[in-house]
Design goal:
Layout: E1 5-11, E2 14-20, E3 23-28, E4 33-37, E5 43-48, E6 56-58, E7 64-68, E8 73-77, E9 83-88, E10 100-102, E11 108-112, E12 129-134, E13 140-147, E14 150-155, E15 161-166, E16 171-177, E17 183-191, E18 197-202, E19 208-212, E20 217-221, E21 227-232, E22 236-243, E23 249-255, E24 271-277
Keywords: Hydrolase
Protein name: SMP-30/gluconolactonase/LRE family protein
Organism: Rhodococcus daqingensis
Length: 290
């Protein structure tokens, strides 16, 4: 029987878990705060920034970079905890960005659902979402389009493949990464049935974990779609990350869906950080940072 442990609770909507420098970092979207929790359960509020979404990752030098919806930019968190502009995304879309991943070469991929979620889904048959590449010099360009609600992203350890969770198409979609960071050879990496994959991470055996809000679970799949593990929860799983001492602990950020009428009610979410042993350690990006 799988053992799960609650590390912390009482948050709002949680997303974007990242293992960095011996701590689990995660974003509380409804509070507008990025937290870090160590293995003794000590929690630090690292930075406050009001943005929905509020996703982040780490550059190769360890500096956090976050996607700001209000500023339509990537912001860099300095050691003195101030935020400065890293890249301007305003020319790409009138809407704020969603998830972000930095590969081993320092390229930053950031995606965008590219529609007003408050107004409902886009017209049937349309997929306005895209993935943009931000290079180390701060330049941004779109490198993949026709994505149906792009969500979690991960890059393989060899920096050769980007995997994107397409929530509205119920699949993980892969691209080859060219030397200049461009994306080619689009393909279905895994069809996940009725699930709507949210945050994802990769492990050393070549499998992917994805979080599912509606079915309240995290699922481990191999390329091609074979399910090899599943963690069932009592609330929606928004994202997951492999980390810990040897990288083989699965951390899940989860929350209760409070309904549209209570979306802004921070306490109604009861956001919770959960951990459980995983069959293989993490690999690729996000993940392998000092």
């Amino acid at each position: 029987m799988r053992v799960t442990q609650t590390l912390a609770n009482g948050f709002g909507q949680l997303e974007s878990p990242r293992w960095h420098d011996g701590r689990l970092w995660f974003a509380d979207w409804t509070a507008g705060v990025i937290h870090a929790i160590d293995q003794d359960g000590r929690i630090e509020a690292v930075v406050e920034h009001r943005s929905l979404p509020l996703c982040f990752d780490f550059l190769p030098d360890g500096a956090p970079v976050l996607a700001s919806g209000p500023e339509r930019a990537l912001l860099l968190l300095s050691p003195d905890r101030t935020l400065t502009h890293y890249a301007d995304l305003s020319a790409l879309s009138p809407y704020g960005s969603n998830d972000i991943v930095v590969d081993g070469r320092g390229n930053t991929y950031v995606n965008n659902i590219n529609f007003d979620i408050a107004a409902g889904p886009p017209a049937a048959g349309t997929a306005p979402g895209f993935v943009a590449l931000v290079t180390a010099d701060g330049r941004a360009r779109v490198v993949a389009e026709d994505l149906a609600f792009p969500n979690g992203m991960a890059v393989t350890a060899d920096n050769a493949t980007l995997i994107v969770a397409e929530s509205y198409r119920h699949r993980l979609t892969a691209f080859d990464i060219a030397p200049d960071g461009s994306l080619t050879n689009r393909r279905v990496w895994a069809d996940v049935g009725d699930h709507s994959p949210d945050g994802i991470c990769l492990d050393s055996e070549g499998a992917a974990w994805y979080a599912d809000v509606g079915d309240r679970c995290c699922v481990r799949v191999a390329e091609g779609g074979q399910v090899t593990d599943r963690v069932q929860l009592d609330r929606g799983a928004f994202a997951c990350m492999l980390g810990g001492d040897v990288g083989a602990t699965l951390f899940v950020v989860a929350a209760q869906w409070p309904g549209v009428e209570h979306f802004a009610d921070h306490t109604a979410w009861d956001g919770t950080v959960i951990s459980t042993p995983a069959p293989a350690p993490g690999a690729g990006w996000p993940g392998l940072r000092p």
